[in-house]
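Bug: token stream looks shifted between consecutive jobs. Job 1:
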Amino acid sequence: MFLRVCSLAAMMVVLASPRPALAQQPSEGWRFMIAPYLLLPHMSGTVAVGPIQTSIETDPGDIFSNLQFGAMLFAEAKNPEWAIGFDGLYMDLSKDGEELSTKYGGYQASLELTGFRRLTPFFEILAGGRLNLMGATFTSPAGVELVDKNIDFFDPFIGARFTIPNTGKWLITLRGDVGGFGVGSQFAWQVRPTVAYNVSQHWAFGVAYWALGMDYTKGELGAGDYFKYDVTTFGAEIGFAYTF
């Protein structure tokens, strides 16, 4: 785990990615931003642990009714050419599975370093990495714990961001990336259109639509160490940012 975290930090030479509430103010030096946000997530896909597999189909109502704890935070440092950012997300929830009447409980966390190198006023390239930490339990209708599994994996990714120029106090961006490449996930993808409004030099509010898909498999189907996470998480984000 320590080595993966070190790898995550070491590969960030071209780093950073904004969340919905980015205050984009002209500056020749470094600026710093911190932005808590709220995700209204849907989750769709398949989770398997050992011999147990279940389909997961949830909406924000399901997530919040089963949410035990959640936290989301983004932070960024940037200058006119470079940026480096951190994005952290944690959700602890439970959900009834659609197969075998099992109950699925688990947590999902991600620590992401991502960044941009500006090539033009409206186009940036990005490279980064995402450390995923997950845990899953399956419980029988009788309340017997069938499986309890924890796992972590690292996904590198590359992509780009487009910013619409000359929008005044508005910030309109589209960011996308692809990754995994067999290092962690077999394939992972992410897309995020963002609209934010700078209400002052320091404060901004914004919304975004975020979608993240990961197809990760470890072990052989049916084996005790088998773990499959083929899930797309998507939904609206609402947040605010303070820039200094």
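Job 2, same session, no restart:
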Amino acid sequence: MKLKAGKTYFNDLWYQMKADLRDFLKTGDQEKLHHFRVQVKKLRAFLLLIDHTLPHSKLSKLFKPIRQIFKDGGKIREAYINLQLSSKYELKNEDFILQQVNEMDKDIKAFMDNSKNYMKTVRLVHKELEADLKEVKGERISEFYKNQLEQIALTLSSLEFNEGLHDCRKKIKTLMYNRKIAQKALESSLQLDNDYLDKLQDHIGEWHDSLLAIELFSAQGISAKPVVTKIKRQNTRQRKSISNLAGDFWKKATLADQPVNNGQEVRVWV
């Protein structure tokens, strides 16, 4: 990854993140907040790629002030999603719903009150990070993908439905977020099945969301046993789907034994 290409990619992500944050601060539109948080994840994935491929790189540390804005926005999203889940499962608990509305309104106000500080932070952190970006050799990017895929394969080879599986999803998302900037480095050494990886991480995400929903609706005072029973049935189906998808992960993810675009066999790590 040439420095110029890296900076262009970084700035494209950054300016979109900044625009989404500014739009949310102006309108309070939940979709803008969601898009802002997705851009933060993409930027963090890019910085992690660099930190893992260059010695002494600490870009992720410089990014922490932005992650704090991300976390502040997460409080708003949590209440909003709880309200969506309540509607989806037709929860009849006015006290809980009112509590979530009040929490969301309070967190939105606190977020808006910090708007000037947030935008200043975005400007200052951008300046620091852009100045510290470096060129990354393609071989190092390939090594990073190899290492992450091996860790994912190891986790899925002895599949357990715990936080380790959720961490596995985060690794997949990091690879997918970086696929555009990593494409050139990988084209002669590794061919990824993006559709498969996207499907797998999506299923793991749905499984994890259902766990959170079970925990939410099982809390004392909510009284939602029928809802919890319904979600548990969904969770069982999700586990079966993940088990089927996770089998032979390495072969499915890397398109092992399939030719790349130039007609040569894909070289995979074993």
